Amino acid sequence: MRSKRKSGSSQVTIRDVAKAAGASVSTVSAALNQSDYVSESTRNKIEEAIKQLNYRPNALARGLRLRKTHSIAIVVPDLSNSFYVELVRGAEDYSASVKYTLLIGDSRESWEDERSYLDSFERRRVDGVIRVPALSAPRKRTAAVTGDIPVVYADRFPPLPEPRIARVGVDNVRAAESAIRYLISLGHRRIGVIVGDASSGTSTDRLRGYMQELQRANIRSDRTLIHEGHNDVESGHSHAMQLLTHPNRPTAIFCTNNLMAMGAFAAIQELELLCPEDISLVGFDDFYWATMLRPKMTVVSQPAREIGMMAARMLIDEIEGRQSIASPMLLGTKLIVRDSCCPPRFAEVSTARVGSPKNNSSSGRKRAVSSQTS
Amino acid sequence: MRSKRKSGSSQVTIRDVAKAAGASVSTVSAALNQSDYVSESTRNKIEEAIKQLNYRPNALARGLRLRKTHSIAIVVPDLSNSFYVELVRGAEDYSASVKYTLLIGDSRESWEDERSYLDSFERRRVDGVIRVPALSAPRKRTAAVTGDIPVVYADRFPPLPEPRIARVGVDNVRAAESAIRYLISLGHRRIGVIVGDASSGTSTDRLRGYMQELQRANIRSDRTLIHEGHNDVESGHSHAMQLLTHPNRPTAIFCTNNLMAMGAFAAIQELELLCPEDISLVGFDDFYWATMLRPKMTVVSQPAREIGMMAARMLIDEIEGRQSIASPMLLGTKLIVRDSCCPPRFAEVSTARVGSPKNNSSSGRKRAVSSQTS
DNA sequence: GTAGGAAACCGAAACGTTTTGGTGGTGTTG
DNA sequence: CAACACCACCAAAACGTTTCGGTTTCCTAC
Predict the structure, then answer these.
(1) Contact B106/A at CB under 8 A
(2) What is the dihedral of CA A336, A342, A343, A344, to 10 degrees?
């Protein structure tokens, strides 16, 4: 009973074109793939026929025959995070420039969804896929699901490198270090950190950067200052709440992704604390709204678009059997200083110091103040 | 010289499965499509073989044979706008629930890009497509590019309805009316509006709502208060600047999309005006950051996800030849009152009023105040 | 004991491309 | 004139599925 499409011509094929142009199927095909020998006159006749019949080549048949679809896929964990939209656009731009189509998947941090996307892409025989694994994705080799096709990891990657799988992202350790170094330079000694889910390598790296930089400055790390969230606004909010209502609260907070930074920002506002006077805040990933908030947020920004482009490039290089960039390709981050940080109000610096408390207390305070006015 | 994939089995096909299971190709196919008669024992053997060989059905071949891919596509104009991400997710959720795959395109408001997406989807023989046309898309019938496949318009649609093409969105006239009515009830008389590109029907509808509501309140509309932007932050910013630096500036501004509202918000901040005391602001589309700004922004919110779901539903209904919802399906909007509006400071109400100025001035202010506290 | 029919399976033809290996026809060269 | 190269074109065989019609086997009923 189901009424099918339109009336007449259900599908116009290359055969129809051939007939109309008085040529053979193979000639039409040759003409289409603008190679091989086909005379000017027949080429014209063919183009005419194509326009006439409104012929659309069937990519399914083509892909089937060629065993190649000229398409790649990307699956990101959260399209509502502008960082990933930027990343996708980078990948899109590069693929378009080399005539590949990009298919997009949004796993919403669910391994189930990611798996189903990968599966669907694999059935569709994409030539390769860029993965930003969901947090809940298994950390073991997932060859089972991606099968035989080329993969590159972007942004996040599993702890131990897999043989034939390229990676591109940023140096998260150094990125975090730069943020912490900056805070320390302002005089902060009690710095809280809200990292993402430990299951993502990025979070552990960023935490490591935090630790290392503290250590370098001879600041004892305090476990109560380290909170683990889930890369979303909610957890940023709740963990910031905990940090801020702690009796001996930090003078600065570093959030390792933009959504958690937003949550922390909201928490600060709710508690009616002054930012940056009462509490300094550093976020991760630059995003448009960061400049729209008051105070404008200081962040360490990642080259999202470049990561996407690089990932696509490395993937397509691999697909076409070209030698590509060296695998763990790490791009640089940038600390963008805006208005959400300043020296701590009462240079609590002192209390964290190692030496005799009183001396350091006063000198520490002076130093902090002077560093503020400088 | 190009090194192909892996080593051995380039592709395992249904034939391999058949061989391994000691069955025929047709039986395996029957087993896969869980219909038809196939005995328990052979079904088991087949499943065993599938697992063993890690067989993945080839969607290309399947689609080719079936002339149906069980996939639909959506192309939205701006993935960095959370409204469209929500819309996409709605479509995704519905399609997934009925076992369709959703392909996503992000045209970035460029007709060239949109066209190329549509083309690519069409070649891929998706079963249908949801379009949110780019602003620069031609307003005439675009059958040429979508060819024969079912289409439904979501959110935006061309001025005159096309015969077999369904539409789903919101009633933009009433949505705008509700915003303006609210502002008027607060006592505003000079209300600026920044609408999107006139080429999208949504913008003209929203402008019409604005006009109608003013008229209903006997307020003469002032052409200098009407600005046409481009649905992006930049133009929101610049037009708000113009409105706010105007000698006789409005007491309230209504922006017809979220990005322009952000731009206006930024402009207000830059001019160091107090919102809402100096200037009230109403945005369009709810978005997460709206609650994070100070003041929290009052917006008219659209059911983005539902629009996406509806669009997918209507499309798939049409694909499967089912009777669907009546075509111009308009969902309701909601005015979400937050903190970005209050009665105008000097009830300039009076000047716009028709009757005796002084009376209305004072009464207007009082009324507004009470309506706010209620 | 045989006709009838259901159950379980199978072979082969399509779906719309690309590609391989040809086939004539036309110049050019020794 | 034979040999050869080259040009423009074509027929047919894949690519990996699904489906249509047919075949075997086995049971039941008369």
Answers:
(1) yes
(2) -120
d(C-alpha B224, C-alpha B228), whole Å: 11
Average pLDDT over residues B208-229: 95
Which amino acid is present at B272?
Answer: E
Is residue A106 classed as helix, strand or coil in its secondary structure? strand
Phi, psi of A282 (to 5 degrees): -125, 130
Proximity of residue B366 CB to strand D below 7 A: no
Query: Is a pLDDT exceeding 70 seen at residue B205?
Result: yes
Mean confidence (pLDDT) of chain B: 87
pTM comes to 0.87
- Structure-token pair, residue A354: 């190692």
Give chain B's end-to-end CA distance (angstroms, integer): 77
Of the candidates B125, B70, B77, B123, the one whose C-alpha atom is nearest the C-alpha of residue B98 is: B70
Does the CB of B320 have a partner CB in chain A at under 8 Å?
Answer: yes
Residue A153: strand pairing partners: A131, A167
Distance in angstroms (rounded) separating the CA atoms of residues A337 and B312: 44
CA-to-C1' span, B98 to D6 (A): 57
- Strand D and B65 CB separated by under 7 Å: yes
From B82's Cα to the closest Cα of chain A, the distance in A is 6
Mean pLDDT of A215-224: 95
Alpha-carbon distance B333 to B173, whole Å? 11
- CA atoms of B271 and B133, how far apart (whole Å): 35
Return the structure tokens found at B262: 């952000």
Strand order in the sheet with B191-195: B226-228, B191-195, B252-255, B280-284, B298-301, B334-336
Q: Which residues pair with B299 in a beta bridge?
A: B283, B336
Distance from CA of B62 to the nearest CA of A (A): 9
- Which of A6, A56, A119 lies nearest to residue B123, judging by beta carbons? A56
Q: Which of B5, B60, B144 sits opposite A148 (nearest CB)?
A: B5
Pairing between β-strand A298-301 and β-strand A334-336 as defined by DSSP bridges: antiparallel
Q: Please tell me if residue A72 touches chain B, with a CB cutoff of 8 Å.
A: no
Taking CB atoms and an 8 Å limit, are B85 and A80 in contact across chains?
yes
pLDDT of amino acid A144 = 61
